[in-house]
Amino acid sequence: MSAADLRARFYAELDPALAAHPDAVLVLAVIGAGYVSETITRRPDQVVDVGIREQAMVGVAGGLALAGRRPIVHTFAPFLVERAYEQVKLDLGHQDVGALLVSAGASYDMSSAGRTHQAPADVALMAALPGWTVHVPGHGDEVAELLHREAGGAGRVYVRLSGQRNARPQPVDGRVHLVREGAASAPLVLAVGPMLDVVLAATGDLPVRVAHTGTPHPLDAAGLRELVGPTPRLAVVEPYLAGTSAAAVAAALADRPSRVRHVGVPRDAELRRYGTPRDHAAAHGLDAAGVRQQVTELLERPT
């Protein structure tokens, strides 16, 4: 696993994070254990591997949180969010306790393993539960900062790790930041997490401004409103289910006449093929060519 990989950076930072926060406990369901074997040997009282029992993994995390510990729960996104959703809802949310959930695999990183290992709806599901913050980092430095900050926190936090990444780290302060300037009246393209480099490549010669956020939920409504202006034209490019941020964007712009295009994994069709993550990105219109086409369509629509 490359050192530049977001998941590899998470594993590399786990031991120092656990050392700095003695109340933190890593909870696994086998997946990932092989990458942190030294940490398991060094800190047996801070690592729990429940076996291939993802619902039990989240239940154990809830019990640890009720006992005053800080659980860091990790496995692939479909197993952590979709398979254990009831436990996330009840054992963490309904009990009003905190935990740090860290997933891997994203929407289709594990495309060769089939649909069981894909989770384009994970952020939408987490955003449907009250009290959660969702971070979608695009660089290893962002992963490290989030882990060290949230390992000592108390809130309910979901961090989505992806095989896709940006060349440079971006702020992880929860705000929307302007990355590429342009005319104040130019449409804004908001790239979420690791989609930034794709968006920059896709729109390099287009008359648009580009912004970025690594925290799509809760969305920085004030920052978005400031950037889009009084008559917004906006494209939101997300690396998961298209329209996941639609309600938050609509609420932020409710008092303004706006045109918004949501670019992401389509909701109306399921790709029943294996292939590579690059194949899936192209099929879903989430490569540079696909993003460019959809942003161009937004530009061509009358204001």
Automatic annotation (TrEMBL):
Superkingdom of the source species: Bacteria
Record has Nucleotidyltransferase as a keyword: no
CDD domains, alphabetized: TPP_PYR_DXS_TK_like
Matching Pfam families: Transket_pyr
EC number: 2.2.1.1
Domain (Transketolase-like pyrimidine-binding) ranges: 4-169
UniProt keywords, alphabetically: Transferase
Molecular-function GO term, any one: transketolase activity
SUPFAM superfamilies: Thiamin diphosphate-binding fold (THDP-binding) (SSF52518), TK C-terminal domain-like (SSF52922)
Protein name, UniProt field: Transketolase
Species: Isoptericola halotolerans
